[in-house]
């Protein structure tokens, strides 16, 4: 996984296997562009395939996590030397161009986040609006700073939550609350977001980073194979029947029950000691570091 500065964000790899993605355009409220989204998709693809990465954390700099798309400069940076992929047209010039751009770039970013087998955390340090809001919703865990404000509010511009926000909100809040939230263009404070089930925890502003890293370390030290299988099973369960979900978890259990982490878990219980999971990752991690 390539670390360092990228188009619109910085990437750090921290022990034990935490990839920190920090948006670095505070002067633009960390607004998204086509170039940033495409580079993020590549970074996340690298994270998925890199055994050194166990958990991915997103956060912002300045007053925003991500205040949505940078409407004034959406196509800026298409030739940025920090891009991880070659530039292509940004789309949105025609109706079919908008359809294509949404499917292969904007929606693809949130799908990539949600489809990662590795767990993801959004540490929402400030404004999370529109595409920034849906990006946070696509993560597995959301922690918010006390001063954070979250919402879609695309109807304020006569636009739709076109990156999957409506689906993610229905999953989290149900149809009735989602209808109210989107149609009335709500932007809520952190405590309101917690009450609605949009975030898992709220922390004082100066404690958010530590809280996110504490959670990331907890997740990174857990049994990675079982956790990745369980993540997928939880998302699948929301759309499967009872019988289908039983068959689905049985197929995954056939893998996890015979993995080294399961043997270590049972041994640690019998020996009354903390489990030392993920020994299977150590040889691959050291080889990649060479």
Describe the structure.
The chain is of the alpha/beta class and 290 residues long. Helix content is 45%, strand content 16%. The chain has helices at residues 34-49, 95-115, 131-138, 165-173, 175-183, 190-196, 208-220, 224-237, 242-256, 260-270, 282-289; strands at residues 4-6, 9-14, 18-23, 55-59, 64-66, 119-124, 127-129, 141-145, 149-151, 187-189, 201-203. The strands form 2 sheets. It has a 7-stranded mixed β-sheet with strand order 1-2-3-4-6-8-11, sandwiched between helices. The model is unreliable at 285-290 (pLDDT under 50).
Comma- or semicolon-separated keywords:
seven-stranded mixed β-sheet; 11 helices; disordered C terminus
Helix/strand order = EEEHEEHEEHEEHHEHEHHHHH
Q: Specify the structural class.
A: alpha/beta
The main β sheet shows up as: 7 strands, mixed
Our Rg estimate from Cα atoms comes to 20 Å
Task: Report strand order across the widest sheet.
Answer: 1-2-3-4-6-8-11
| Helicity range | 40-55%
Overall geometry comes to globular
The proportion of strand residues reads 15-25%
DSSP helical segment count: 11
Number of strands: 11
Provide the low-confidence segments as ranges.
Answer: 285-290
What would the average pLDDT be, to the nearest integer? 93
For the termini, the CA-CA separation is: 13 Å
Quick structural overview:
The chain is α/β, with parallel strands linked by helices. It has 11 helices and 11 strands.
Give a topology summary.
Elements: E1 4-6, E2 9-14, E3 18-23, H1 34-49, E4 55-59, E5 64-66, H2 95-115, E6 119-124, E7 127-129, H3 131-138, E8 141-145, E9 149-151, H4 165-173, H5 175-183, E10 187-189, H6 190-196, E11 201-203, H7 208-220, H8 224-237, H9 242-256, H10 260-270, H11 282-289
């Amino acid at each position: 996984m390539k670390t360092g500065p990228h188009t619109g964000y910085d990437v750090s790899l921290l022990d034990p296997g935490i990839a920190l993605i920090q948006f670095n355009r505070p002067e633009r409220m960390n607004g998204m562009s086509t170039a940033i989204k495409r580079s993020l998709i590549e970074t996340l693809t690298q994270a998925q395939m890199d055994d050194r990465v166990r958990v991915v954390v997103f956060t912002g700099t300045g007053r925003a996590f991500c205040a949505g798309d940078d409407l004034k400069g959406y196509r800026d940076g298409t030739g940025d030397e920090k891009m991880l992929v070659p530039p292509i047209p940004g789309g949105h010039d025609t109706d079919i161009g908008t359809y294509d751009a949404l499917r292969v770039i904007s929606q693809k970013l949130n799908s990539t986040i949600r489809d990662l087998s590795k767990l993801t955390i959004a540490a929402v340090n400030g404004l999370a609006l529109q595409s920034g809001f849906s990006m946070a919703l696509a993560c597995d865990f959301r922690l918010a700073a006390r001063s954070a404000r979250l919402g879609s509010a695309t109807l304020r511009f006569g636009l739709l939550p076109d990156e999957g926000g409506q689906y993610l909100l229905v999953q989290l809040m149900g149809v009735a609350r989602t209808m109210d939230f989107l149609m009335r263009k709500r932007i809520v404070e952190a405590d309101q977001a917690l009450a609605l089930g949009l975030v898992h925890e709220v922390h004082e502003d100066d404690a958010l980073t530590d809280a996110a890293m504490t959670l990331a370390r907890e997740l990174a030290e857990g049994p990675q194979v079982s956790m990745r299988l369980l993540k997928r099973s939880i998302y699948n369960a929301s759309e499967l029947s009872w019988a289908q979900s039983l068959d689905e978890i049985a197929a995954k259990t056939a893998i996890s029950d015979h993995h080294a982490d399961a043997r270590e878990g049972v041994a640690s219980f019998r020996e009354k000691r903390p489990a030392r999971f993920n020994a299977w990752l150590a040889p691959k991690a050291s080889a990649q570091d060479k």
